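2024-03-11 09:14:02 INFO queue: dequeued item Membrane protein, len=52
2024-03-11 09:14:02 INFO validating residues
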Amino acid sequence: MEHVPAAWLTGAADAAARQGSGNLLRVVLIVMVVGCVLTAWFVLRGYGRHDD
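2024-03-11 09:14:37 INFO prediction written
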């Protein structure tokens, strides 16, 4: 068996083509929702303070 430096890359591309984009889309959506929640918390946390 020959050692091909980019064999892992072609193997990963073949596996991704067989599996589809379901896992990637799921990860992107989860990261987006968590980012939106953290951004909303950061922006809205100052509205409850009454600095007189």
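2024-03-11 09:14:37 INFO annotate: The chain has a mean pLDDT of 78.
2024-03-11 09:14:38 INFO item closed
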